[in-house]
Amino acid sequence: MDPLDVITNTEKIVPYYQAIFSADEQKVIGYEILGRIHMEGEYKSLGFFFHDDSIPEEYRMEVDDTVVKKALEEMKELDDDLFIFINRDPNLLMIDHGESFLNLLLEEKEKGLDLNRIVLEITEHNYLGDIEQLHHLLTYYRTYGIKIAIDNIGKESSNLDRIGLLSPDILKIDLQPLKLASPSQSYFDVLFSISLLARKIGATLLYEDIEANFQLQYAWKNGGRYYQGYYLHYPEREFIDRCVLKERLQQEFNHFIQFEKKKLETLYSYSDQFHQRVSQLVNKYKKAVSQFDELITHLAEELGDMSFRIYICDENGFQKSGNIFRKEDRWIFQKEYYMKNWSWRPYFLENIIRMRVNKKGFLSDLYSDIETGETIRTFSYPLDDDHYLFIDIPYSYLYEQDGLL
Predict the structure, then answer these.
(1) Cβ neighbours of residue 329 under 8 Å, at least 6 residues apart?
(2) Residues in the chain with pLDDT < 50?
(3) Is residue 237 part of a domain?
């Protein structure tokens, strides 16, 4: 479609609405406003128009305002607790320092619109200006009750420092990359980092572009409170019953819950089995050896089926042994690791205290090994009140066991 067709037919522009669903209530909590134009007997998306930098800024802003004004007029009939998600290009927003957009909302406020319902969506990585100025504008908007959402996280490279500075109320995570046959581990690591950031800054996670059940399951499992995508509901010209998916979502969540509980039970069962096996071996060799290096050498011979690295640390994270490391089906001893300190690693000291209190070994979550780069788990085991055994389990073993990946 020619952009000129849009500019000269603004009367044919209409808003479409894509429903956003909540995990806690399993119902619609808001709508994202999308632009469409009625041409040649069908409604066509205006996405191409808004993303075309060759179109003069004033035309894109005019069309954007047309969509929003029509939508806000139609949304007066909705429940007053429904959120209204409005997309804005931050570069266009800052042309007049956000005044025209705010004035549009203030005009609607005089007609009865509660600005606490407004969620302004921006894509942080598209912004080319001074991030501090954008930060000041968004802070000013918040004084009116307007909420801020950062869009398209996970689809492009996003700067977590900039996102942290903007302190959004909602982080919208794009799950399109999850449709790839084998998404990279780094993609999952980035999403995990984003979820940690959201927790730290008090932001709600909204997963978008959900087009399949497994994406919804991932979103549910990884802290998503809000969900959006074609798997749930396509954008429509009309509003929908808020509880249209309540029964279906309850059923799907119940399946997710049962699956996750079974997986956790399996994980705890494996952890108990490892604990029993390691306990027997430690009791077998502990009195027969005088040095920790000897102990881990004996353990390596017994645990070759499930381990590729074994070492011992004290309660402060200093290694009291070298590493015994399996390379190409043979064990090698790495004495250079003696007295290296690992207390800086996430959860290390927390795990030490956990073992000291519970007097029991346990399996870690999945993570990427800093030396090999492969996905592993670590089994940690308390030798005594001062020394702790660490057994790194390779991906190949985890893959063969049902429930460890």
Answers:
(1) none
(2) none
(3) no
Does the residue 90 lie in any domain?
A: yes
Q: How far is CA 281 from CA 3, 178, 287, 385, in A?
A: 74, 42, 11, 18
pLDDT of residue 155: 61
Give the C-alpha separation, 82 to 28, whole Å: 8
Q: Which of 202, 217, 232 is the last residue of a domain?
A: 232
Angle (CA) 313 316 322, round 5°: 25
Measured CA to CA, the distance from residue 288 to residue 38 in angstroms comes to 83
How far apart, in whole angstroms, are the C-alpha atoms of residue 223 and residue 270?
A: 25
Same domain, 114 and 202: yes
User: What are the CA-CA distances from residue 41 to residues 62, 192, 244 (Å)?
Assistant: 24, 44, 29
d(CA 398, CA 405): 6
Judged on CB neighbours under 10 Å (0-12, 13-18, 19+), 74 is middle
Residues 6+ apart with CB under 8 A from 164: 197, 200, 201
Per the CB < 8 A criterion, the answer to whether 121 and 152 are in contact is no
47 and 175 share a domain?
yes
| Residue 269: inside a domain | no
Residue 333 domain boundaries:
274-400
Contacts of 53 by beta carbon, 8 Å cutoff, 6+ apart:
none
90 CB burial (10 A radius; 0-12, 13-18, 19+): buried
CATH number, domain at 222? 3.20.20.450
Give dist(CA 206, CA 227) in Å, integer. Answer: 6
Give the tens place of pLDDT for each residue, 346-377. 889 999 999 999 999 999 998 889 899 898 99
Same domain, yes or no, for 60 and 161? yes
Domain with 333 in it: what CATH number? 3.30.450.20
Which of residues 232, 263, 297 is at a domain's end?
232
The model's pTM: 0.87
CA distance 101 to 85: 14
The reply to whether 69 falls in a domain is yes
pLDDT value at position 188? 79
**In 237-374, beta strands by DSSP E:** 309-314, 323-327, 330-334, 362-363, 367-368
